[in-house]
Specification:
Length: 213
């Protein structure tokens, strides 16, 4: 089994603060995620800046696309994104559009299961369509209401499909090994890193824990 990857979610709205945080964290993670509020606020210029500064990290742009899949995602792949996300609640044609454009650029499409009611069925459908990554995701508002991604991760991993499984939603050092053992191949951490006193040390700790799981 290949080693799990660690992804850091850059969820600030501030352009310069995002770049400064990425400078600290990039050496300690595999994937830099430009979070949804961040990409909406700062646009593709931020992707271009991070792409130029961090050639050794993959970059995920969390577009959470809901319509016009191919059209919306293409400029981001053109500008150097390695992964963009599309909502699992979107029309199947939208999801196919993002998968198609990812394939056209030799990149990856991640289907985010946030708010998908029948996660098992949707996961099988999009895996059959060629989705590269399934995102098991408890959003920030859902976390505030006390939800976690652990049961959903168990369900998706138990399907045994030939896709990568990403997990996001309040993952912290105490839960990293639990999610890797449960089948996550990409572990996402946002607040556990940017909210830490020393974000670089927090990122390094999470990556070490993931690799050792
Ligand atoms: O995509 C997101 C919100 O929609 C976040 O970036 C993701 O949940 C990771 O952040 P955290 O570890 O703080 O939950």
């Amino acid at each position: 089994m290949s080693k799990p990857l660690v992804q850091m979610a850059l969820d600030s709205l501030d352009f310069d603060a995002t770049v400064a945080l990425a400078e600290k964290v990039a050496p300690h993670v595999d994937i830099l995620e430009i979070g949804t509020p961040c990409i909406k606020h700062n646009g593709i210029a931020l992707l271009k800046t991070l792409r130029a500064k961090f050639p050794n990290n993959k970059i995920l742009v969390d577009l959470k696309t809901m319509d016009a899949g191919y059209y919306e995602a293409e400029p981001f792949f053109k500008a150097g994104a390695d992964i963009t996300t599309v909502l699992g609640t979107a029309d199947i044609g939208t999801i196919k559009g993002v998968i198609d454009v990812a394939n056209a650029y030799g990149k990856e499409a991640q289907v985010d299961l946030i708010n998908v009611l029948d996660k098992g069925t949707r996961t099988k459908e999009v895996a059959a369509l060629g989705a590269h990554i399934i995102g098991v995701h408890t959003g920030l508002d859902q976390q505030a209401a006390g939800q976690t991604p652990f049961v959903d991760l168990g369900l998706v991993a138990s399907l045994g499909l030939p896709v990568k499984v990403s997990v996001a939603g309040g993952i912290k050092p105490a839960t990293v090994q639990q999610v890797v053992k449960a089948g996550a191949t990409i572990v996402v951490a946002g607040a556990a890193i940017y909210g830490a006193a020393d974000p670089a040390a927090a990122a390094a700790e999470i990556t070490a824990l993931a690799r050792a799981a």
